[in-house]
Amino acid sequence: MGHKVHPISFRLGTTTTWPSRWFARGNAYRSNLREDIRIRGFFKEALKEASVNEVKIERSRGALNVSIATAKPGLVIGRGGAGIEDLKKKFLRAFFPGKKIQFQLNVTEIGKPTLEASIVAQQVVQDLQRRMPFRRVLKMAIERVKKAGALGVKIAVSGRLNGSEIARREWLGWGKIPLTNLRADIDYAGDTARTMAGAIGVKVWIYRGDIFEQDRLSVYQPTTPSRDRRAPQDGNRRPGQGGRFSDRRGSRRGDRGPASSPATAPAPTQEQA
After folding, report:
1. 119 and 215 share one domain
2. 95-109, 158-172, 208-222: which has the minimum mean pLDDT?
3. SS3 string of the chain?
4. 40 and 25 co-located in one domain
5. Domain stops at, among 91, 111, 131
6. pLDDT computed for residue 244 by the predictor
7. Could you read off the pLDDT of 26-80 as tens digits, one per residue?
8. By the 8 A CB rule, do 188 and 197 touch?
9. Could you list the residue range(s) of the whole structural domain that residue 164 is in?
10. How many C-beta atoms lie closer than 10 Å to residue 251's C-beta?
11. Looking at the domain assignment, is residue 94 inside a domain?
């Protein structure tokens, strides 16, 4: 049996970071985690047409900071900031009624939305709900990702495809998806299309290149200095240890001196004569 690992959680602390930043223990941890799930569901439902990629949450004592990354920030902010103010009021009324809390809502724009797996999955879901053929939908989505500069993409759909009576799983891909490489920047997302025939699951993998040590975020850089191996100096070498290009036989013999020549008969002396 295969053991599937989530591509994002597999790379936490190396190339990806946590979507929630706070610390709690015991019952507070459970309540905060449950509240984070509800907060993300609220914003994704309220901003369904704004192509929300991710919702980051930061908590501190008596303060809550929510950052929304979207491909259409104009729909979130609204004319003159009226849209974001209404969204804040709805949020506080739904989660903190009658409570005072320092709440801050930030909206950031995504530079290349076609390279984000969550947005690509949302586009596939919208096309499937319009009853478009699933193979045409997958091919169109892969072409958009290729033009955006990705190195690989894979899209899988599962369910009653094209209204068939028997559910099945189909997928299309292009390029490479190195799932076992930790330094590979792979974005993954899943979504569900609610069609007349039933639910169709959508999964998207996008390979955007490798992240090397110098390109990683500063929060992931090691804080302890690395030690370089010291090369032995000439004065500290043991007898028989030569340089890099020394004779191997001489280094093995140690300080026994040069190799002796083949044995020859000694020349006779005058006394022996």
Report:
1. yes
2. 208-222
3. CCCCCCCCHHHECCCECCCEECCCCCHHHHHHHHHHHHHHHHHHHHCHHHCEEEEEEEEECCEEEEEEEECCHHHHHCHHHHHHHHHHHHHHHHHCCCCCCEEEEEEEECCCHHHCHHHHHHHHHHHHHCCCCHHHHHHHHHHHHHHHCCCEEEEEEEECHHHCCCCEEEEEEEECCCCCCCCEEEEEEEEEEECCCCEEEEEEEEEEEECCHHHCCHHHCCCCCCCCCCCCCCCCCCCCCCCCCCCHHHHHHCCCCCCCCCCCCCCCCCCCC
4. yes
5. 111
6. 47
7. 899 999 999 999 999 999 999 988 899 999 999 988 899 999 999 999 989 988 8
8. no
9. 114-219
10. 14
11. yes
Task: Report the candidate in 20, 30, 107, 114 with the shortest Cα–Cα distance to residue 70.
Answer: 107
- 75 and 159 in a single domain? The answer is no
Question: Does 243 map to a domain?
Answer: no
| Two structure tokens written together for 169 | 């799983």
Q: Are residues 188 and 213 in the same domain?
A: yes
Q: What is the CATH classification number for the domain harbouring 43?
A: 3.30.300.20
For residue range 188-197, list pLDDT tens digits in order. Answer: 999 999 999 9
Tell me what pLDDT residue 246 has. 47
Q: Token match 């026994």: residue? A: 256
| Confidence label for 241 from pLDDT (cuts 50, 70 and 90) | low
Q: Do 31 and 71 belong to one domain? A: yes
Total domains present in the chain: 2
